[in-house]
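TEACHING EXERCISE
Course module: macromolecular assemblies
Task: Read the component lines below, then compare them to the predicted structure of the full complex.
Student: A.B.
Group: 4
Components provided:
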Amino acid sequence: MARVVLGMLGLGTVGSGVVELLAKHRHVTLKKIAVKDINKVRTTEFSCPLTTNVNDIIDDPEIEVLVEVMGGENPTLSYLEQAIKKRKHIVTANKEVLAKHGPHLFALAKEHGVTIFFEASVAGGVPLLSTIHKGLEANEISSIVGILNGTTNFILSSMEAGKSYEEALAEAQALGFAEADPTADVDGFDVAYKLSVLSALAHRHFVKPETIYREGIRTITKEDMALAKEFGYRIKLLGTAGKRDEKGKEIFDVRVHPTLVPLEHPLASVSGSNNGILVKGHAVGELTLIGPGAGKLPTASAVVGDLMNLAGALKLPDFASYFQPVIEASPASATPPDEWKCPFYLRLVVNDTPGVIGKLGTIFGANDVSIATIIQRDAQDKEATIVILTHDVLGRNMNQAIEELKKSDFLKTFGNAFRIFRSA
Amino acid sequence: MARVVLGMLGLGTVGSGVVELLAKHRHVTLKKIAVKDINKVRTTEFSCPLTTNVNDIIDDPEIEVLVEVMGGENPTLSYLEQAIKKRKHIVTANKEVLAKHGPHLFALAKEHGVTIFFEASVAGGVPLLSTIHKGLEANEISSIVGILNGTTNFILSSMEAGKSYEEALAEAQALGFAEADPTADVDGFDVAYKLSVLSALAHRHFVKPETIYREGIRTITKEDMALAKEFGYRIKLLGTAGKRDEKGKEIFDVRVHPTLVPLEHPLASVSGSNNGILVKGHAVGELTLIGPGAGKLPTASAVVGDLMNLAGALKLPDFASYFQPVIEASPASATPPDEWKCPFYLRLVVNDTPGVIGKLGTIFGANDVSIATIIQRDAQDKEATIVILTHDVLGRNMNQAIEELKKSDFLKTFGNAFRIFRSA
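Instructor-supplied answer key:
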């Protein structure tokens, strides 16, 4: 396959980037692009015909590879199925369809003797999949932890600079980083899809995205950001895809939630809309990759990299045999949040009366929550902000202590509780 | 080549790691290891015979791949040549022999139909070569900037924590991170070798290591580290392998020197003996990789990764055709340091008399050195420390200003002048 003929579904941001990068490659020919609206004004120059009929591409026997950059679950899934059945290789940037239908699609591809490449589906331009599949081939990967969503990282970076969540979100929307409905990003769905794909690569099982524990960033305040910084941390939305053995049982620890990361840790240096991913391998130790998680040319760089590797490969990777059955993250096959042990950050507003710290200490002590640091701030109008960093705590004990705090007579407002990152 | 028979030269730290990782791989057989001293007590378990005669490996027709982890230029070079002539593939961790003899060795390998793999030669466990060669295949790389020497980074991290250079070096030596003669590390030779190999990968030309501009870390004081931090920087030994067009001429900007990196930059988060590398590609933008730059299992992870990619490849990479003729870094094909433009950090000790700041300003102004920040500290015993951060300055102008400062009547001690990192 020295010269490759392509068809493409979608000509949005990423699709335009692919057209731009392919202009330099003579061994790849883009023959047709399927779009929703053929009359839309487009700024990208392209020399191949557009069509609104996907079958113009799927039924064209000359087209060997389908580049799918339209996104979404439906009707994309059925287009991919049809293309695979016509024995076309797939290069896709679509984490949602892979997370929800990966096992089915890879099995179908194997049945029809074609391969699905998907570097662009996770972490945009960061070549995470080739790093795990090629660069770290000698390693057993125990976990992948990272900042996998550029939109929320941009919002959190803005909040660190003093904006409120609402202001930061509005700014991200104005700049085109966030959708009008930001749910997929700010509530962690996008990260959950990516974690499912990363689990498949690192641990050979896709994880059902709806079983992944998920907390978003809506409740984080700029006050939390400032207090975290004062204690030497940044709050990041971290996704984790971990696997470990516990008493001979495989535990898949897959989750996304806000986490305090120490300022000097490489993941804390991931700013703006960048992504950052820490991969732990038994031989390499910890490897961190930081780069653009989205955007026109970075994501197109991943798509075109796949195309070049596809064009240059005499032996295509057999992902279908590599991936094992889909699993659930929690609670059937993973520890529930109640069983996680980690330090916590808590922010409370209390009545500023004598003995409050003592009462707090009593509640925490009774629930095996050991306090590492406690400070009282901004006492005024008979109320005070209290920030607490704990030592390692079982999730169940932390929740129990928080329940009792909420029932206490001295609590005015329960601010937030976030987990603190620990490089185990 | 589904099952591979290996011979190995060297059984030091990295060699022991390779033995350990290979124990799990049934498709790779390690047949013989050549060592200097066969009677040395070894803690690694290995089941294959040792020999002190390298020809036992080179002349064994069953051995298809030679793993070279003995290091150094001679006699290693001649062993590699002999093995290549016997049509053995090479997997090497040896940056020095590649930097000095890369073009010759790759040409010889091509002539004899074999390939040289060298992931472990740069940045230890960080899969930098596979990232550039595979993951970023769609990119033109304009520059690679990084912390490429774990020993000096360990020393600088210790100095940041308050140790003097001598104390930090002694600590690194006691821990086995630094050699008894630390010249190769602290004077930047090791980084220069790595930059030569990285230039070959990114820009397709090996760069003669002796033509690479080189400043080491011996002159850095813990006072410099503390002052840099106060201004929001960390001092790192950065290597740069850049390429750009200037008036239709290709400029190869290859150099290693201490550089102030902003605290919030990912490269500033590279601590202890880690390496960190920033790759700039025209499509991906900036990608940073951080991980262990040396050590037993991390480096072995790169060697064994190469072996697995070699064993799995139906089509081996043709590096000999990829690499173009060796070039010189400076001054014939690169800008000399006089022509570099960047901001500078300066530390001076002056006589604490009225008008000193005015005199300083006059000297700087006369040489087109524009001051961004100036502070005076620790005035006592009629002397004061002055720290200056400049705007962009031509190297020639900075040197001229420093010469005039040294001749002035108010300078007591010239402290240091370091370049400040700019992500251009």
